[in-house]
Amino acid sequence: MTRVLCALVVTLFVAATASAQQSPVGIPPVERKPYTLGGFLEARPAIVWFDTAATPFTLQPPSDNAADERRVQFSGRLQLDAGYRQNWFSAQTRTIADGGYAGGDWTGTAKAYEAYVSLKPAPSLTLDVGKKTLKWGKGYLWNPAAFLDRAKSPEDPTLALEGFAVVSADYIRTFDSPLQVMSLTPVLLPVGGSLNSSFGARGHLNVAGKLYLLLYDTDIDVMFLSGGSRPSRFGFDVSRNLRSNLEAHGEWTYAPHATLPTLTPSGALRDTERGAASFVLGVRFLTEGNTTYIADYYRNGAGHTDADMNTYFDVVARGVEAVADSGDETLIQAARRATEAGYGLIHPMRNYFYGRVNQADALGVLYLTIGASVIANLDDGSFALLPEVQYRPSGRAEVRVLATIQRGARRTEFGEKPADVRLELRVRYFF
């Protein structure tokens, strides 16, 4: 019996050892498709209450100077995102079609916001060619360090931005030291003919670059732009989590030869060249109750002073009187040129504040978000308030109600905006 038991134990041990040495049952790998396709379809009906005495209306030609104080508008957007990836090659596109109806007129545009190919000859090196958004900078609404990107939308800073045609590269290295990651991004942006014509003066090859460092758990970028289509500039940005729920960020840039068009009381438009330093300082804080607070201060070194804007509004007022009295449009034409030269930019002055509060799962309702933003011009005291409610009943549908309320005295930035109040409904379906 003892021999039988010993033989049985040995047999079980050998069987167990052989079983352990066999390869485990493998899970068949999931086949990853080389292509992706997605996007959304959005409808945006809105009601707008206009200030028909605001500067943008007084500068319109007489035949177009009539405007209803209240107008119903409708717009929509189709965004298509497509990608293809195979080994060392990939391609990305983002196409956006916008359509709208307002005041009896239909409008529509369609363009590629991004369309570029990427080559990855080595794990640490990527080459990109085509139309691309680079997304430089750390600020939430303003990014003076975004030398090669367009301005964000005040109503929704997260909206996709149209890129520029570029040739760029990314070289990345990692280290086992306080300097954990380093990457270098050189960029070439040509401007000529219709290629990148909105970037600046034609006939230039603009050269830009960014050095990224993850140093002591702090994100640091150092960047520059040179070439001629825009004044050369350089700067840096930084971001760090001071605590798990508190992040601080900042940007600083300097343009040694920035050009600021300035309107004189006589209506002459003069270019003043000077050094311009711009910066953003901000924080982002998340509470235990899942409430997010964002605060950014923006100093626009290339912006107009309060005195500059008062001169501009005075030229507009005198121009309106001259047209009414004698039909002389000299000053009105000068004001229109000044508007196009920079006085009509979204935020043309020097000191601004942006604040936002956002409550996820508000009122105990899952996927219901209630929030509000404020954009304040610290030079003239005017502001815009943007309350909103967003609900996502499913993974594919989203409903958002957004209001824009602009307030300020006459001859202030937001007091002269054409729309006093805008109430908008956005219904978006993702696919």
Please tell me about this protein's structure:
The structure is a single chain. The chain has 431 residues and is mainly beta. It is 14% helix and 52% strand. It contains 4 helices and 18 strands. A hairpin with a 4-residue loop joins strand 6 and strand 7 (179-191). Helix 3 (306-326) runs antiparallel to helix 4. It is globular. The termini are far apart. The model is unreliable at 1-25 (pLDDT under 50).
Quick recap of the structure?
The protein is mainly beta. It has helices spanning 2-21, 55-58, 306-326, 330-343, and strands spanning 35-50, 70-86, 89-102, 105-122, 125-132, 164-174, 179-191, 204-215, 218-226, 233-243, 246-263, 269-286, 291-299, 351-359, 368-377, 383-391, 397-407, 419-430. The protein is globular.
The number of helical segments is 4
* Main sheet characteristics: 18 strands, antiparallel, barrel
Question: Terminal Cα separation, in Å?
Answer: 71 Å
Structural class: mainly beta
**Strand coverage percent:** over 45%
Total strand segments: 18
Order of helices and strands: HEHEEEEEEEEEEEEHHEEEEE
Helix content: 10-25%
